[in-house]
Amino acid sequence: MITFEAKIREQTVRMYSDLPLKNAVGAIFRTLAQVSQKVNIFNNKFVLCFGWAYFFLDERRDEKGEKFWVVQTGDYNKDPQTDRVDNATVSLVVQNMQIEAVQIAKVKPESTTCKDTVLVLKEAKDAEDVYMNRSEAAKDGDSGWYFGLLDDPNEENHSADDYERIPSYEFLKLRTDALRVLQMPVGTVAVFHNNELTALIDSEDKPLKFTTDEERRKLSEKQRAEFEAQVKDAQARAQAEAAGADNSNQNKEE
């Protein structure tokens, strides 16, 4: 796990991630620094809603007794509204996915959080071809998103029992790529085949640009190569430092 560290108002703040998501972590640190100019964030009660995810500051002590703060996020394997984890990888990856989507589509994002609900046609959960459509939210906590069958022959005949509302974080298990479009504005329609986004349309039925799975795979390969190079470089530096320390100790003994 990678440790990121920053000083905010003379306090040491750390974030942990399995991936080198330096830009995403930097955005969190900068936001915390800005907010700290107006309110006390170091009180074990502070909550930051940043895009889709929520972040919390938890006070810790290291082996020397020095105080530091860990930026925690919700535990999506349990209930992210009540359960927290130190590993922020999932929240940061989803954040990156959503930022990429609105930037590529060149639209103004409209917020959806991990706890906002999506209206789901139960039959669509395991279907191959589905779509999502965003309407105006009916109430607080409603994302406005609907998840249903593409070309549903019974669309006009469903009863209330055929639907359910689920928090958007459940799409981590249901259909991960759906998380990518959650910050798209009202009127957006997204079409999926299995877990792959195949079409994205705005409120005027005009196509929006998006990155394909193949394009993302190529980018992932490049990022993975860069990450492996960073790891090798860090290992080489550590070995060089260790060798230097050994030489220094030998010289002292002589």
Helices and strands, with pairings:
Elements: E1 2-8, E2 11-17, H1 22-36, E3 47-50, E4 53-61, E5 67-74, E6 84-85, H2 89-105, E7 117-121, E8 129-134, E9 142-149, E10 163-167, H3 171-174, E11 189-193, E12 196-201, H4 213-253
Parallel strand pairs: 2-5, 7-9
Antiparallel strand pairs: 1-2, 3-4, 4-5, 5-6, 7-10, 8-9, 8-11, 11-12
Order of helices and strands: EEHEEEEHEEEEHEEH
Low-confidence stretches: none
Radius of gyration: 22 Å
Question: What is the helix fraction of residues, given as a range?
Answer: 25-40%
The overall pLDDT, averaged over residues, is: 88
Distance between the termini: 39 Å
Number of helices: 4
Report the biggest beta sheet as strand number plus sense, adding barrel if it closes. Answer: 6 strands, mixed
The total of beta strands comes to 12
Indicate the proportion of strand residues. Answer: 25-35%
Number of domains: 3
Please identify the structural class as seen in this structure: alpha+beta
Oligomer: single chain
- How does the overall form come out from the CA principal axes? globular
Question: Would you summarize the structure shown here?
Answer:
This protein has 254 residues and is α+β, with helices and mostly antiparallel strands. The protein contains four helices and twelve strands.
